[in-house]
Amino acid sequence: MKLIVFSVFALLLQHSVRVDSEPTQDKQALLAFISKLPHKNTIKWNESDSVCNWVGVICDDTQSYVSTLRLPGVGLVGSIPPNTLGNLTQLRVLSLRSNGLTGSLPPDFSNLKLLRSLYLQNNEFSSEFPPSLLSLTRLVRLDLSSNAFTGKIPFSVNNLTQLTGIFLENNNFSGMIPSINTPSIVNFNVSNNHLSGSIPKSLARFSAPSFAGNVDLCGGPLPACNPFFPSPTPSPNPPNSQSPSRKKSKKLSTGAIIGIALGAAALLILLLLCCIFCLIKRKNRTRSPKEPKPVAGTRAVPAGAEAGTSSSKDDVTGSGEGGGERNKLVFLSEGLYSFDLEDLLRASAEVLGKGSVGTSYKAVLEEGTTVVVKRLKDVVVSKKEFETQMESLGKIKSDNVVPLRAFYFSKDEKLLVSDYMPAGSLSALLHGSRGSGRTPLDWDNRMRIATSAARGIAHLHVSAKVVHGNIKSSNVLLRQQDHHDAAVSDFGLSPLFGNSSQPNHRVAGYRAPEVLETRKPTFKSDVYSFGVLLLELLTGKAPNQASLGEEGIDLPRWVQSVVREEWTAEVFDVELMRYHNIEEEMVQLLQIAMACVATVPDQRPAMPEVVRMIEDMNRSETDDGGLRQSSDDPSKGSDGQTPPQESRTPPRSATP
Ligand SMILES: *[C@@H]1O[C@H](CO)[C@@H](O)[C@H](O)[C@H]1NC(C)=O
Ligand SMILES: *[C@@H]1O[C@H](CO)[C@@H](O)[C@H](O)[C@H]1NC(C)=O
Ligand SMILES: *[C@@H]1O[C@H](CO)[C@@H](O)[C@H](O)[C@H]1NC(C)=O
Ligand SMILES: *[C@@H]1O[C@H](CO)[C@@H](O)[C@H](O)[C@H]1NC(C)=O
Ligand SMILES: *[C@@H]1O[C@H](CO)[C@@H](O)[C@H](O)[C@H]1NC(C)=O
């Protein structure tokens, strides 16, 4: 009771805080900023309104500071006045791209210690690399591209240890590229500058387009730095001459000319020597013409192979740009996200997991939105069928189902976009770095996950008439870090793959026995997979790992054998042994799980029934434990299905 009163009070308090307060210092800083810079009249910030309601401004949840400022393309002209934006010390995201900003950044930008994303591209900044940025150690994305920044790229960029993307292309940076060692960087671009010298080893992992358009750059992905020539032949660069407005100095220094002359002379001598050598060789062995030819032969092969790899490398980016038919990202729910394919392709991506259906990426879009993009492979259905299936999946709405937000279909590429769940998957929670100081998943949370996942699947079956087809712990995602409500993802995709190419290892360990033959998941095979998932929750063992002692034995069979030997206690996860008074519940859940994994499909309960059994079980237990929210239901234990006394001697009853 006290607890409830307190939480209501806390709610009220929070609410009142929300209504009254606004960050006044941040407001003043923003007003000073906007009053000193000319801008389009799309920005009409109302001084008497809360700063948190202004266009382009986002505050934190409690409205105590401005966390995001986005003013792209609003016609800001001139240099950023000091002591304005630099006063927004809690700022996380700042986007001033596509304006007419000039000069440098004021030194007080170094106060933006929490800044994670900074987008200043497409302006007219003309200073050296702003030193104030070098102490912003939380920066994840830094975009200074398409400005007129000059001078060297400072070595202290290494201070920004969290960077995943740094964009410096289309500027006037010069000198050598410093050895940037930040391993987290996935997007790196310095193309179209005046950089020179060899590409440092630490950056050689990026491809040529990251460096193109710098006439004097060599090594790494570009042609090797040749001792005869001070710079590599500029032939690989022209394709990228995107900005004809920027003059590239075509004048060669006398040193370069001498170098080229020397080089040419050396090459000539070398060729001559080669010819003589070949002639002599040919004379010597006229019988085997094999030898001399390969010179031409081996050349042709790698060239062809290279072309092959580069076209197969033509992944998301390539097909987006190349194909004549320009397909669009189709959104399934209106208004939630506003990005297009280009944005998606520009996003920084990180592999979340490789499954048999395809690979999932976490994509962080420029403006800070995070989504999950799944690239499907081996899709056999036509575009029309694909669209129909996506549209019906897009309509599914349940708290326990991860919504599908958008899709993309082209000849070479099929993408699905869904919400990103930062709290991760059940699989990671159960099996990730066991023992090394991680908090074990406690029983209450396991129950909560079981209940919510069951509800999600039941919703798919009953309301949407969709077979999930890929139930496994890595497809059960958690909504929040500590309070574990789960949602199921990756559902309803099996119709896209056709029967013959249905990879039968897709849900190894979770797959119902009959699916091995029919290759077609059904409602009942979903129930089986869910039963395996419950066993996984109870035993802490991954069903698709060889952690069960004997080879070739699956989790249900292992549990059955252990339970039959009357060692029921042995099946449970050791991490659960520290909690008291949960044996009864564990045994009850075990019984439900065993019913789900019945070999004969018709003996398995339907999903709504599974939900009911789990919920009933919860209810009868809340009164015993007293730890969960109190239930006013006096009819405890009267369900008859599992009389409380029985639970002390569980083994027999647990065998189905
Ligand atoms: C920014 O902060 C400085 C130092 O705290 C203060 O002197 C200045 O007035 C602030 N600027 C604005 C516009 O509030
Ligand atoms: C500014 O906001 C106040 C309070 O919200 C409102 O009364 C007023 O009409 C607004 N002024 C303009 C010009 O929108
Ligand atoms: C880089 O970081 C170090 C320590 O974090 C700091 O002392 C140094 O001033 C930074 N360098 C620059 C150029 O800001
Ligand atoms: C780029 O910088 C060089 C000096 O490093 C300067 O001579 C040149 O004019 C600059 N070009 C542009 C387009 O700003
Ligand atoms: C780098 O930027 C240039 C110019 O905008 C672009 O053509 C190139 O594709 C980019 N490189 C990478 C690896 O994205």
Features:
656 residues, alpha/beta, seven-stranded mixed β-sheet, 16 helices, disordered C terminus
Would you mind describing this structure in some detail?
The chain has 656 residues and is α/β, with parallel strands linked by helices. 31% of the residues lie in helices and 13% in strands. It is built from 16 helices and 22 strands. It has a seven-stranded mixed β-sheet with strand order 1-2-4-6-8-10-12, with no helix packed on it. A hairpin with a 5-residue loop joins strand 17 and strand 18. Helix 9 packs antiparallel against helix 11 and helix 11 packs antiparallel against helix 14. It is elongated and about 75 Å long. The two termini are 41 Å apart. The site of one 2-acetamido-2-deoxy-beta-D-glucopyranose has 6 residues, from strand 11.
Name the overall outline.
Answer: elongated
Q: Oligomeric form of this entry?
A: single chain
The poorly predicted ranges are 1-19, 227-260, 274-325, 619-656
Radius of gyration equals 32 Å
What is the share of helical residues? 25-40%
User: What's the β-strand tally?
Assistant: 22
Calculate the mean pLDDT score and round it.
75
- Would you tell me the structural class of the helices and strands? alpha/beta
Q: How far do the termini sit from each other?
A: 41 Å
Q: What is the count of DSSP helices, taking H or I runs of 4+ residues?
A: 16
List ligands, each type once.
Answer: 2-acetamido-2-deoxy-beta-D-glucopyranose
Main sheet specs: 7 strands, mixed
Domain Protein kinase: 346-617
Biased composition (Basic and acidic residues): 616-636
Pfam families: LRR_1 (PF00560), LRR_8 (PF13855), LRRNT_2 (PF08263), Pkinase (PF00069)
Subcellular location: Membrane
